[in-house]
Design goal:
alpha+beta, seven-stranded antiparallel β-sheet, SH3 type barrels, single chain
Length: 105
Amino acid sequence: MAQFDVYVNPNPESRQSVPFVVDVQSGLIDALPTRLVMPLSRIGAGQARFPVNLCPLVEIEGEPLALMPHLAAPVSSRMLRKPVVSVARRAGEIGAALDAVFSGF
């Protein structure tokens, strides 16, 4: 498993609105049985509008999805199957979004 790999959401109940999750956990703690992931949410009418630096858009399989760092949660490593893609090139934006949750920008 690698930091910034994207996986199909392992929770079938929320997969319609959150099709993917991105692993944001550092490799320094790979020994843990869990990974910290952030949801990648479909953008829809009625959804709260968050600042783009808090919830940057990430395109996965041609679909723009909003990163939701304020909903980051641990999941069992066993639930994350084969990665779909890596978003490591967006590491700076993803890290800044997580920092915004803690520092308020």
